[in-house]
């Protein structure tokens, strides 16, 4: 019985490690996923326009993430510090698919009052990837 328990624990630990690794991605991989879901290539200019414009709500993406998004931001209402958004300036940015989706969902709701489409996510991420240190 001790051996079975040990094997089950080892399998559970392996599953956790594999799950964490499965979530680790690159910004380019996430962009590829969004463009695939959108069914069309991302458009950098459209991403910049989306990021810097208001969409009927009080804030734009730039309200908290700055324009350009190459420095640390600050939440418009709470003042809470926000990590730099452009991937070249934040090596951890856009490397966890679950976190990326979580923040797109929350931020899109704040900015446009709904979840962003795959095309909108692709455009914004493509624009963010144009920034170089």
Keywords, separated by commas or semicolons:
Cytochrome Bc1 Complex, Chain D, domain 2; mainly alpha; 56% helix; single chain; 6 helices; 133 residues
Overall geometry comes to globular
What is the straight-line distance between the termini?
A: 57 Å
Number of domains as seen in the coordinates: 1
Major β-sheet strand ordering: 1-2
Looking at the structure, the CATH topology is: Cytochrome Bc1 Complex, Chain D, domain 2
At CATH level 2, the architecture is Orthogonal Bundle
Question: Looking at this structure, what is the CATH superfamily?
Answer: Cytochrome c-like domain
Please identify the structural class as seen in this structure: mainly alpha
* Rounded radius of gyration (Å): 18 Å
Short description:
56% of the residues lie in helices and 3% in strands. It is mainly α. The protein is globular and about 35 Å long.
How is this structure best described in words?
Helices cover 56% and strands 3% of the residues. It has a single domain (25-128), classed as Cytochrome Bc1 Complex, Chain D, domain 2 (Orthogonal Bundle). The protein has 133 residues and is mainly alpha-helical. Residues 4-8 and 10-21 have low confidence and may be disordered. Strands 1-2 form a two-stranded antiparallel sheet. The chain has helices at residues 2-23, 27-38, 44-52, 62-65, 97-112, 118-128; strands at 73-74, 81-82.
